[in-house]
C-alpha cells in the first residue's frame, strides 16, 4: 500500500500494484463482514425473503403476492419500490440452501460478492482520479453506511455495487474503445436498473460522459440497453397486472407529500447528517474539507452548527444536539466542498487541477444528482439512500489530501497533523466507527430474533398472531405465529396477539382490542448504547421518521413487545349456553384491577355460562372474581363464584370456587380462581362459570388468562 | 518651528477622549440634577430590567433563587442587567442608581461617534457629531432610562468604528475589537445584528475579502469572538427567543403598528426622527446636511456610513414591532453627517453665528425636554401623524414624550403603601402575596410594583390580568386585586380592564375593599382582598 508519506515515484503506474491492492481490499471487506455473518434478518430483509419465497412459485412475477404491511392489505406487491433482481438472488439462495433460523450466515456469505464488487470497482474508478486508489477503496469498505448496509439483504449495497461496476467499466471502455467493457457496463447498468428503478439515473450520468468524450456507437448502445430492458419488463408487467406498476409507486410517493417544504427541509437536514457522520468520521471531514484559512472555516462552521442545532432541534437532549451540530458542520463542509469543486469545474478558476473540466463536472453531476434524488424522489430520509454519493465524496476527499501532501513537501517542517496522519487516521477511525455502528445494527437485529423467541415461550400452545414488521415479522412467522389478519373475526378467544412497540406495530381493531387482556410486556435491550433506530431518542439511520440523527446513545430498552390474549370468556360468549334466573344475559364490561382496566364478563346471581371446550392440550385458566360495585342486595348477602370443567354428561370433572361477601371486611376484594382444564380428545367437554348468591348483585369474571400447563 | 504646547499635543492625541469626557460630564451633570428632582418609580420596561438586574445579585431582596443563570434576564440578553447589578452591588439597589448604568454607555457612544466622525470628516466635524449626539432630545431622554437600546447604540457605534478602522479586516487588532464590540452588542440586545449585517456585507463585497486570506482569517476571528461571546447567552436561549419573536410580531400588530410593507411603515422612522428624536429644526438641518455631504463629498467612505444608516433603518422597518428607541443607534451616525456639514461652514462670522445658534438650539432643546419651559407650549404639532394605539405626529418640538418622559416630578404613586398593606394583610392571614393589577399605567403597573416589592424585600407575585373571559375566575391565583377608576393605561394591554373592574365592583362577596389611595394623576387606586371559600378571612 503506497502511503501518504511518500511522493509518487517516477514512472509510478496507478494500477501497477492492482493485484496486491485488490488482495488487500478482499481481506479488508471479508474481515469486516465475517463477524456479522450470523446477523439476523433485519428491517426490510423479511420483505425480500417473502417475495423470494413467492418467486419460487411465480418466477416471472415474484411480487405478485397479496401482502399485508403495517396493518394495510394490498392485493399484490407489483408496485413495490424496487424491481426484482435482489428477490431473484434470494430466491436462488432459498432454493439452494433452504430457509430456516440459523442459516442467516449462508445468505450473508452469499451476498459478500456485492461489497467486494463495489470495493473493486471503486478501486478502478478511483485510479482514474487519484494517485493512490487503494485508500478511498479501503475507506469505502470501512465507511459506516457501507458496512451497516453490507450486513443485510436489502437492495442498497447490491445497487451501489452495480453502479460502481457500470461506471468503472464505462469509463475504461470509453478510453480504450473496448466493446467488451461497454458490454460489461451495459450488463452492470441493467443489473442496477433491475435492482433499483432510480439506477436509471446512470443513463444520463454516463450519457453526459459519453457526450463529453465524444463516444462512439458502442457506448450509446451500452447506454440504451438498460432502459430498453426496463421498458420491456414494465410492459410485461403491464400486461400481467393490467396497470402501469410504477403509477402506484409514484402515487405512494405523492401521498406522503414528499415535496412539501417540511419534508424537503427534513430530508435536507438528514442528508447533511448522514454524509457528515456515515461516510468518513466527521473530524476528518472537517480537517480536510474545512481546513481553509488556518482552520477558521471549520471553527466558524462548527459555531454556526451549534446555533443551528439549538434552533432546529431544540427538543433534542444536550448530547443529541452536540451530535447534530457535528453532523451538520461535517455534512455542510462536504456539500460546500463538492459545490465549490463542481462550480470550478464548470466555471474554471483555482481549485483541484485534475478536476477541471470533465472529471470535476462528472463528479459534481454524480454527487448532486444523487443528492437531488435523495431530496426529491424519496418520501423520507434514510442513510442507505446516500450510498451512491459516497464515491464522489471520497474521491474529492482523497484528491484534496493528495494536493495537500504536495504542499506539505515544500514546507521546512511537517505540520503536527500531517497529511499522512490525517489519511491514516481517516482509515483507522472510520473503520472502527463503521464496526461500532455495524455492531449496534447487529444488536438491534438480534433484539427482534430474541423478541420472537421470548414471545413464543409465553404463548406456546396457543394460536399466536403478530402485528409488526422488520426482523420481528420474519422470526415471529418462522416460529409459527401468523400475521394479524384484516378480518378480526378470524382471531378467536384464547389466542395471543404479540406486537412490538417500535417495529411498526399493527393497530388492533377496537372491537377485538376491547376483548384483549394484557399478559406480559417483554423488554429488550441490546448490548450497546449505540442506537441506529430508536423510539425514545432521535436515531434515524433507517428513516427520518424516527429522528434526524444517524445514531444516538441510549441505555434504555430498545424494544418492548406487548403480549395480549383475546379473552376466551368474552369472545366465545355468543356461542356459550346460558342459564339464568335473571332476565339479563351476561354481558361484557371492564373492571379496574390494580389500577388498570381489564375486559370482564358480568353476570347476575343465578347465572351459569357454559362454553364448549375444544383445546387439545391441558390448559390452565386463571381469572379474578368480584362483585360489581353498588349492586349488593343486602348487608347479609353472600355470593359464590365457580369455574368448573364438565364432561359430556354435565358432570364436574374439576372445579374451583370462592365466596364473596360484599358486606364483610375484604369481601369486595378480588378473589383468584385457577383451574386446570383437560383436553377434549374424543369426548365433548365444557367450561362452566357459575355465579349465585342471596342478593341481586352482579358478579364479575375478569382478567381471565389461558396458559399452558407448566 | 516651535513645537505645539503639551496640552495641544495631548488634545491632538486624545481629542476624542477629552471631548467624550467633557460631553459625558455635561450631560450627566444635567441628568444627576434631574434624577435628584424626580421621585417617580421607573416606567414599564425600565422597571422590568431593574427587576431582572436584581436576579443577578446574590442574596438580593426578593431574589428568585430557582432561575437558571441564562434565564435571569428573561427574554433579554443580560449585559445591561449585569451592569445595573454591578452598580446595585457597588452602591445599593435603587432606581436612581440603576440609571447610572448608562453613564459608561454615554462615554462609549460619544467617543465612538467622535472617532468615527474624525476619521471620516475631520476633527471639527467629530466635535459637532459628538455634541449633536449627546444633546439630541431623544438621546437626552433615554440617557437616564434603563433601557437596553441606549447601551446598544453605544455598541453599534463602537462596532462600526472598529469595523471602519479595521480597513476591511486588514488590521487584526481592530478586527478583534470589532468582534468584542459585536459580542457585547449582541449581549445587549438582539436588534444589534440588524445594524451590522449590511455594513459587514458592504465591507466584504467592497474589499472582496475572499481574495485576501489574511483578512478572511481576521474576519473569521471576529465572527468567532462575537459568536462565542454572544453564544454564552444565545445558545441556551435560542429556542425561547424564536417563540418570543413570534409573540413580538403579534404584539406589534396588537399595538396597531402599520404592516411591514405599507407606506406608513416605510416613513415610520422618518417621522419619529423628525417628531420625537431630533425635532423639526435639527431634522431639517440633518436633511440638508445629507444633501450637502453627498454633493460636496464631505465624508470619506460616505458609502459605508450610508450603508450603515440605511441598513439599520431597513432592518428596523422590516420588524413589525416599532418604537423610536429601536432606531436610536442611527442618531449618532446621522449626527456625523450633520457634523460634517456644520464643520464645513468654516470659521466665517456667519458660520460662527450659525454654529452658535445650532449649539444654543441643541442646549435649549435638551433643557426643554429635561426640565421644561413653562412659557412655551408643551408641544407644537406640524402635522398629525399615523394613528395606531398612539398618535405619532410631525412635531416642531415636544417637551414631553407622551407625558411619560419630560421634566422631573415629585410624585408619590403609593406603590410602597399599597404593597405594605398587602404585606400586612397577607402576613395576618398567612396568605401568598399575589396581586393582580388591573391598570397598566406607565408608573403604576405590574413591573413597577414587582420592582418596588423586590427592592423592599417583599416576596410577592404580581401580574397584570388581561382577560375577563372567566369572570371572577379571571382573578384565580391572586389573593389581592388592585384597580383604578379612571385611566387604565396603554390600550393594547387594557382592553379588558373595564370588564375586570366591573367584576371587582359587582362581586361584593368576593372582593373586599382593603384601602383607597389617591394617585398623582387624580385617580384613586382601590386594593381588594379576593376572598375564597377555602381560605382567607
Briefly, what is this?
The complex is a heterodimer of chains A (710) and B (537). Chain A is α+β, with helices and mostly antiparallel strands.
Overview of the molecule:
The complex is a heterodimer of chains A (710) and B (537). With 710 residues, chain A is an alpha+beta fold. Helices cover 46% and strands 16% of the residues of chain A. In chain A, strands 4-3-5-9-6 form a five-stranded mixed sheet. Chain A is elongated and about 105 Å long. Chain A starts with 17 loop residues before the first helix and ends with a strand. Residues 5-12 of chain A have low confidence and may be disordered. Chain B is of the alpha/beta class and 537 residues long. Helices cover 58% and strands 8% of the residues of chain B. In chain B, strands 4-3-5-7-6 form a five-stranded mixed sheet, with helices on both faces. A two-stranded antiparallel sheet of chain B has the order 1-2. In chain B, helix 2 packs across helix 3 (79-90), helix 2 runs parallel beside helix 19 (446-455) and helix 10 (192-206) runs antiparallel to helix 15 (302-317). The model of chain B has no long low-confidence stretch (mean pLDDT 92). The interface between A and B is medium-sized, with 13 and 16 residues.
